[in-house]
Amino acid sequence: MASLISRTEVTLPDAPRVASLLIEHMQEHDVVCENRDGRTIADLGIGSGVIEVTPAALKVEITAPDLGSLELLRAFVADHVEEFCEGFRPTIAWRGHVAASDRIADFRELTLRSVVELTPKMRRLTFSGEDLARFDSREGLHVRMYFPPEGLAVPEWPRVGADGQIVWPPEERKPAVRYYTVRQVRPEAGEIDIDFVLHDDPGPGARFAAQARLGAVCGMAGPVGKMAPQSGWTLLAGDETALPAIARTLELMPAEARGAALIEVDGPGEEVRLKAPAGFEIRWLHRSAALAEASPLTGAVASVALPDGHEPYAWVACEYGTAKAIRSHLRSAWKLARDRHMVVGYWERASAA
Q: I need a surface site. Which of 6, 30, 194, 315 has the fewest CB within 10 A?
């Protein structure tokens, strides 16, 4: 499939400074940037970018495989250029491939059709929607879920502005956005399964799942997020918020895959049946009520014996502070390069999703 390209040239009073801040911001988020003949080439994961700068203008060219990815990158550039202008509102106009509609290309409206209790604290919600084939992908684990405010008769969704930025409804009608893992997609039936953790102090997503009114409407866009590599020895580690992603990753692993999955839950009643390759060790970790602030994941990861002759890859998702400690261990003790691990804080102890 041919790539899609968009270009913009933004007139700025201090274009070199804005360009420098944009490139620095990308590098802080592990985007690989390379200088070639005075241009900066950025590998943006879902696409690529080329940045050129003159004393009076910033030129950006974006290439992506599909319209949804192109829109995300246009919004990224427009948002940060405006942010770094510090009070000056630039005029941003995109040329090249521009959609005819202001609807977000990868957005779908969903209707809740069924609910299954997986454990006392986890529910599987099945939604119906149109044109779901793009979400049945090995390239993206996660989706952005849009939950309308309670009591809103007709949901209102974000749209794409002329400058590429996302335009949201007024605050009182603005949907809350949370990231969730696609558990299974049945495009031919127009159905998608999402697993939700029920928190004691629920945010918008957990509240939607707890109420679970059949016929309720929400939104979805994506998919996003990288899967662990399908070869070599792999560590998967996380708490119940990462369990859907770990379960789906294990299901998609080839039969010969090897590694370990460490999963922290409240107790035996929160364990679920997992389909995994024979070479994967599954270890359930039960947190202690007496040590509610301490995660057993940190010690469990530290106790893993790495097999000889394999360069490991680690995928970890859990509470922010725990993720930070595990990331430090993987870099210092395991000596993992940045491209051999992904460690994400899904939530902070002071809040829940």
A: 30
**Hey, which bits of 56-212 come out as E strands?**
57-64, 95-96, 107-119, 122-128, 142-147, 159-160, 166-167, 176-186, 191-197
* 192-212 confidence digits (pLDDT tens): 999 999 988 889 999 999 999
Which residue is it, tokens 């202690």?
288
**Superfamily in which the 4-96 domain is placed by CATH:** Alpha-D-phosphohexomutase, C-terminal domain (3.30.310.50)
pTM above 0.85, yes or no: yes
Burial of 184 (0-12, 13-18, 19+ CB in 10 A): middle
Superfamily of domain 107-224: Translation factors (2.40.30.10)
Contact assessment for residue 3 and residue 65, using Cβ atoms and an 8 Å cutoff: yes
Task: Encode pLDDT of 77-105 as tens digits.
Answer: 999 999 999 888 999 999 999 777 888 99
Angle at 236 between CA 286 and CA 228, to 5 degrees: 160
- In the chain, CATH 3.40.50.80 sits at 233-347
Going from the C-alpha of 269 to that of each of 78, 210, 211, 244, 281, the distances in angstroms are 47, 18, 22, 16, 20
Measured distance CA(63)–CA(41) in Å, rounded = 11
Does CATH place domain 233-347 in 3.30.300.30?
A: no
Q: Is the dihedral of CA 69, 75, 78, 83 positive or negative?
A: negative
- Alpha carbon distances (Å) from 101 to 168, 219, 287: 16, 18, 49
Q: Report d(CA 245, CA 264) in Å as an integer.
A: 13
